[in-house]
Amino acid sequence: MLEPSTRQPKQLPKQLPKQLFINGQQPKLQPVAFMFPGQGAQYVNMGLELTHEISTFRVLIDRCSELLKPHLGIDLRHVLYPKQEQTNQATEQLKQTSITQPALFVIEYALAQLWMSWGVRPQGMIGHSIGEYVAACVAGVFSLEDALSLVALRGQMMQQLPAGSMLAVPLPEEEVQSLLGQELSLAVINGPSQSVISGPTDAIALLQNQLDQQGLEYRRLHTSHAFHSKMMEPILDSFTDQVKQVSLNPPQIPYLSNVTGTWITAEQAVNPRYWAQHLRQTVRFSQGVQQLLKQPETILLEVGPGRTLSTLTKRHSQKAVEQLVLTSVRHPRQQQSDLTFLLTTVEQLREAGVPVDWERCSRPKGVSPMSDCIKNGCHSQTPDQQDIPRHKGQEDDTQKDNSTLESESSKTFVAPRDDLERQLTKIWENVLGIKSISVTDNFYDLGGDSLLAVRLFAEIEKVFHKKLPLASLLMAPTVAQLVNQLRQDQGAAPWSSVVPIQPNGSKPPLFCIHGAGGNILSFRDLARYLGSQQPFYGLQSLGLDGKQTPLTTVEDMARCYLKEIRSIQPKGPYFLSGYCFGSKIALEIAQLLRLDGETVALLALLEPSPLEFSTSENQVPYQRSYSDRLKGLFHRLIHRGFQDVLKQQFLKLVSKLYQSFGISLPQSLQIIKVQEANTFASKNYVAKRYYPDPVTMFLTSERIAQSPELQKGWIELVTGNLEIQEISGKHLDDQPGSFLKDPHVELLAEKIKASIDQVIVS
Fold this sequence. Notes:
By secondary structure, the protein is α/β, with parallel strands linked by helices.
């Protein structure tokens, strides 16, 4: 690694030009810092509408794409903005490092120049990995032509290296070092306790097993290579030689170095060896952004697709409550107009006191200024728009109702406004381990999951003496929304097993039934990946609210849930799914529908539990042998660990003590009671009728290996086509690596979508 300079780093300027007057008042003086994201933020059609509507942005995309043609051998615009029939091909191309890095550079450079043309000039910058090249180019270290050639070459040289893997872990640098061994490297430090480990795929797999045994969370990243690791070393010398061929200049705008985590020096910026070390050494984003967070008056603006750096910054322990963090381009899952999203950020900057040149912000061809466009949602077409295809179905998104969307990346910080919000915010901060949570921040965007949700609601019950269903978090994922739930009279609210996780969309609704745990929080990511056109309803167990008695037979559950399903969809065809134990309930519902003359178009079983099947009238009640009990205990010890199993047994004992004294169970224990009822129902259920319609099973590789034992009952039961589709991940929904969590859930969603579409077409 290069030795940092002994000179004092150049601090962001304290003085800014005179600001505009807004509504007759002079706002605060606030500097802006640009943040340029790295690989992983890209997606097809990022900023597409901006190319149609803003000539400055489009001209820069065109210019960069033309300059890159000799280096890439393709027109980058065909990958960024493909024709509809070429979208899948472009998506795959955009995953290739040799294409990803130039694509991100082009988008981020064009956005930076657009912001500066509007008068939003950075007083400092930070880039994440390839993003530092954009910062350096904007600062004048590289010319645009030289930067593009180096970025293209860098991506190509990385692409030619052996494949590798990267693993995100919620651990600080000191703890990560003990996990690395000889082959692995600390690739990225995204936060005080957010790191990424990089190295050979087999070494990463061994580390995953080690983390599983320790019960530690991790997330496998979608990367083809082990960036910022020892695997990059073979190309360092040759890349250094290539950098020597271009002209390097001292930066004219200060920016932060990934290599040192502090302000870049002139000596580092003009040293070719620095840029080689930059692709090998750890990305110290956390230390770098901490320098910007030392000045709470600095507005941090993410200049690139999505909200990756904004989210990391908001989670940083050093972020002040009042510091404003904004983004430029919507996240791919946000169904919102690119232009409206950008103009909303313009308005937020303007309200914060950043001088915006409204003359330059005027729309092309004399269209009204942008402030009017925000109000009126106006659009204009430019003569050369035919160069970039507009797809069928890409209607004016500004006319859509986005009232239910949580645009976390574009919201300003909102402090608690009363005692109730202050108390609830404090609980969130303690459970999530994050300071300065806005009452409009989304629980899941802050890193929340189903396990943390249980802790959260246990604390809420302790402080407020109210039991909220866990599913409340799906409908009210912010402090502000959850406070409204607390203010309501929960006794008057009718319980419903059906939860509209995503109620809108043009396709037939998909009803997905809970596993043995009874709650459906783990279905959230699946619903999101299925897309905005797929209505998705989860069915949760009775009794989770502590006010109703849990049902103890699959047959009773099926009858109860079917009644609620029909309140949403009175007539078929029906699309049903169930996770683990929920597959048995889904099967029973499908049988009831068939007996009633209805059509079950899809029965999709997610990691279904083993099934007993018998047409005999004389069913013997299920009795669990000692060998079965030992086998079950051994299985739980392997998959959950000794401490987790011991804790579970302790909670069961406490639950029984509560019930024996007639004391109302806390929610954490109520969940145990529901789980026991579901486990009892599962063990005592015997399917009694053949099922003649098709059934699709989605099984992990691990479960397929156990297929003879797992599938025996299902094979006997299903007389129609029984299709098995392999998915990645692990069975348990609350454990690291679950098939219902990233990155595995995306593959599952793609396969379910394909099954639904196939049924619809046929």
